[in-house]
Amino acid sequence: MRVLEIAVAAVFLATAIVFFSLTFSDDFDVPTFGGDVGPAFAPRGYLLVWIILAALTLFEAVRRSELPIKEIGDLRRTLLASAIAVGTGLSMLKIGFVLAAIPGFFLFCRTLGYRNYLVLILLSILAPLAIWSTFTFIFELLLPRSPWFGRL
Fold first, then answer.
1. pTM above 0.85, yes or no
2. For residue range 103-119, what is the model confidence (pLDDT) as tens digits?
């Protein structure tokens, strides 16, 4: 479990650092409506807390780590799941949320050990559609769209 703890803490720390650095891009450089702070103030604050907590978790996990051989499989599985999550996120920009989330959800669950294929296939189709419809029709926030299927 310690290898898994180290891997997860390292991924969280790296993700938070990347997100924090993105808040300094031109996308966040927009005029405010007379307020004292810009739109990047709150995300930077939350991300700083995230960075500190992830760094403390990583430090604590490394400090008491012994890395037994049997936990190397957990590390590989964690890295593969992280790669699937990153690949799914990047493919959402090109093919849309629904078309990227269906195989991404399936592969992610399969990597983490879920083996009931009937349930996994149903969940892989229904969960992204439910998330998409919730964001589109209830929250009225559009997720990345497919270039081939209009609203999806």
1. no
2. 999 999 898 888 899 99
